[in-house]
Amino acid sequence: MKLTNIQYAEGDKYRSLSEQLTLRNDTIFANRGNVFSDDGSLLATSMSQYEIRMDAYTVDADVFKKNIRSLSVELSKMLGNTASYWEKKIKKARSTKNRYLFITRKLGYNDYMKIKNFPIFNLGMYKGGFIAEQTTVRAHPLGKVAERTIGYDDYRGAPGIEGAYRSYLKGKHGWRMKQKIAKGQWKPINDNNEREPIDGKDIVTTIDINIQDIAHHSLLRQLEFYNAEHGCVVVMETKTGEIKAISNLGRNSVGKYYEKRNYAIYESHEPGSAFKLMSMVAALESGAIDTSTVVDTGKGKYKMHGRYIHDSKRGGYGKISAARALEVSSNIGFARLIDESFEKNPEKFINILKRMHLNEQLGLRIKGEGKPEIPAPGDKKWSKNALPSIAYGYNLSLTPLQTLTFYNAIANNGEMVKPKFVKEIRSRNNYVKQFEKEIIDPQICSKETIKKVQEILKNVVIRGTGIKLYDENFSMAGKTGTARTEYWMPDWESNRRYISSFTGYFPAENPKYSCIVVIHKPDLKKGYYGADVSGPVFKDIAHKIYTSNHIINEIDCDVPNFASVQNNFNSYYTKSNKEFNSIPNVKGMATMDAIPLLENIGLKVSLIGEGKVKEQSISAGEKLIKGVTIVLKSI
After folding, report:
1. Is the bond preceding 507 in cis, omega lying within 30 degrees of 0?
2. How far apart are CA 265 and CA 170, in angstroms?
3. Model's pTM, two decimal places?
4. Do residues 222 and 214 make contact, with C-beta atoms less than 8 angstroms apart?
5. pLDDT by residue (tens digit) across 568-598?
6. C-alpha to C-alpha distance for 627 and 617, rounded to whole angstroms
7. 328-356: per-residue pLDDT in tens?
8. Cα(15)–Cα(29) distance, rounded to whole angstroms?
């Protein structure tokens, strides 16, 4: 009676419970959309990986006996171990009725297609016992290029573009029915998905691979030379606000640099002398001064409101114009100009700064943007010294990208544009959404003021603090920045720390790009001024972009004659046209030259690092054997 009751009266209930315990829907994760550079190069993509298992018991006895050896041979070729090892393993699984035998994992798509056509496996799930379970992993084909800005979206969080545009990238998951078998394992019921996953949409960024590579390596070399703590570089297209390159490098415990944090976006700090441009614009706009207004900077040391202000030049600059004060970056000059002009009404000066949006975040979609801080009368940080301190870049904070956005507005004749990281969203090469230029302010100040400060910024490079960057063949404009940091710490006098920067644009007459370079805590024994530490990175980036891009077709100036570039080309051309019977010496050559040279003579090349070749695994002069792999180590 009990058996009848369970079988019929309560049968549906118990069958439902059984299915709940032995059947489940397994999620099939959709492939995330790809992230591309502006020229279509892959920056991030989802790659399928496969785990292969075998239902060794389900295969027909005759089929198993006839094909087990050939299957074992193929598995040996692909996965290693001997054919005998695989044959023994599978036969044992069959004898123990193992229906979920582990074969391998992390197979790529091409290998998956090969293994599913092996003997026995080619009969499918039911007749061949072939079980394949797909997962996806995120890969960055170009390595560390703008890694922190590209970001990720996983258990670590969702920073960068991957996090900001996750709703477009993530797609829609599918599912597949599985049945519980022995030892708590789950096996797919059939070959078909119950609901197919829908892949995410693709993101096309504004990043230019060539400019990114230039910026990354220029910054890296300088950080290594000065043994600095960390630094960042941002290159922005002047008219559109498109970010063409962004590199953020921090030092780890063993002294190596990597994309540690997105310093350009999140790190708000005192900008130092870079802020003198903002002070100059505000003072000119108020009518309190003109570029010809004379200020007495004395002998390089001046007491104001109970504390001393110093200039970097011993003996001081004496009486100079306001324009010259910006060119030589006089702290005393700016402290006196601003304090004497606005001492009775400091709100007027602060309000002009705020009107130019210097107290506002840029409103980036990428999370983590630092908050700018500009104190005003009545705030806790306000004192008699607040106004002169702000005048030369202290007692306030901005992020590097916020500073660059202001300089870019000066280069752009007053139009302040919002930095842009993404051009468009695509789905299977069809446009889904395009992101147009966003204007923060069509005119941050008068055109007269813009023209005046543009001329001064040009003169900073020609005859001011940036004179070391001057090149008669190529015009640049900008401002050096050297700021004390952590000066409130008790050990500052014995262990001084500085932030070095250079912010500007190029070419000076018709700017195509603006750029900021910020380097924190360089080794003082080697230097710490912005012109020495950060300026050379700016110049290197500007010149390399200039020689490799189409700017030369858009500006009216002579093409520079770089002797070193021509010599490198001549050396490569001579070597590439030579008949080789032995291994050539490629030490000191750029990897982009060494690789094609070696491949053209029949060698396979494996590269460790980037930059110039430091070591080659096969010594120069050894006999050339085509098809052999040569390993190049570069710096």
Report:
1. yes
2. 24
3. 0.74
4. no
5. 555 545 554 455 678 888 888 877 778 878 8
6. 14
7. 999 999 999 999 999 999 999 999 999 99
8. 30
